[in-house]
Amino acid sequence: VIEEKGVKMKLTVTDTPGFGDQINNENCWDPIIKYINEQYERYLREEILITRKRKIPDTRVHGCVYFVPPTGHWLRPLDLEFMRRLSKIVNVVPVIAKADTLTLEERAEFKQRIQEDLKTHAISVYPQEDFDQDPDDRALNDRIREKIPFAVVGADQEHQVNGKRVLGRKTKWGIIEVENPAHCEFPLLRDLLIRSHLQDLKDITHNVHYESYRVRRLNESNRP
């Protein structure tokens, strides 16, 4: 439960440890796709009951944060195939993990390559251009799209910096502050997911991804 300025929000994070770490990664996305579709199925079952609950419990996945390893080269075939399959059923937000292993020049170059890769393979990641409702949305989302994938650094320890306690990662040359935009783009990712675009993520999940799943399932059940 996240609380900010008296507003409480329940947030569920589902992790997929070990994904893509095998020698043979063939069809390694299947359990993840199965899990996402199971949540749609659960919601659909509740929705088609004659006496529905006033508020259907929503366990659907509204966003998938996809961590790209910081190779500095191009996307791996595994990353491309995974994002291609997943972007059809869920909002995919790619991020560069452990971005402190790249210099700023390498980081900028790597981002450029990832953007080119996504365009070449026609992979539509969140925020999708097709769903921009008005010019203001488009202008805001264009600025976000320029920065995607966000280069993030994770940390779970606090350190003292200029008399303040900050969340960061200690290195030989100093402390990388996770919440400092000059150090990493974690604040951009957080704002996108739980502030500026939270409702939009839910709307696209409901109106686009869930709707296409619902239509497909109802068509299947209508077949003789």
Can you describe this structure?
Residues 1-220 form the Septin-type G domain. There is one protein chain. This protein has 224 residues and is of the alpha/beta class. It has 6 helices and 8 strands; from the N terminus they run ββαβαβααββββαα. A 3-stranded parallel β-sheet has the order 3-4-5, sandwiched between helices. A 3-stranded antiparallel β-sheet has the order 6-7-8, with no helix packed on it. Strands 1-2 form a two-stranded antiparallel sheet. α5 crosses α6 (198-222).
SSE arrangement:
Blueprint: E1 2-4, E2 7-9, H1 30-47, E3 64-68, H2 77-86, E4 92-96, H3 104-120, H4 135-147, E5 150-151, E6 157-161, E7 164-171, E8 174-177, H5 186-196, H6 198-222
Parallel strand pairs: 3-4, 4-5
Antiparallel strand pairs: 1-2, 6-7, 7-8
Helix pairs in contact: 5-6
InterPro entries: G_SEPTIN_dom (IPR030379), P-loop_NTPase (IPR027417), Septin (IPR016491)
Organism: Grus americana (Whooping crane)
Domain Septin-type G: 1-220
Task: Characterize the main sheet.
Answer: 3 strands, parallel
- Give the SSE string: EEHEHEHHEEEEHH
Overall mean pLDDT stands at 91
Uncertain stretches: none
Structural class: alpha/beta
Distance N to C terminus:
46 Å
The number of helical elements comes to: 6
Physical arrangement of strands within the biggest beta sheet: 3-4-5
The percent range for helix content is 40-55%
DSSP strand count = 8
The 3D shape can be described as globular
Q: In percent, how much strand structure appears in the residues?
A: 15-25%
Spatial extent as radius of gyration? 19 Å
GO molecular function: GTP binding
Protein name: SEP12 protein
Keywords: GTP-binding, Nucleotide-binding
InterPro entries: G_SEPTIN_dom, P-loop_NTPase, Septin
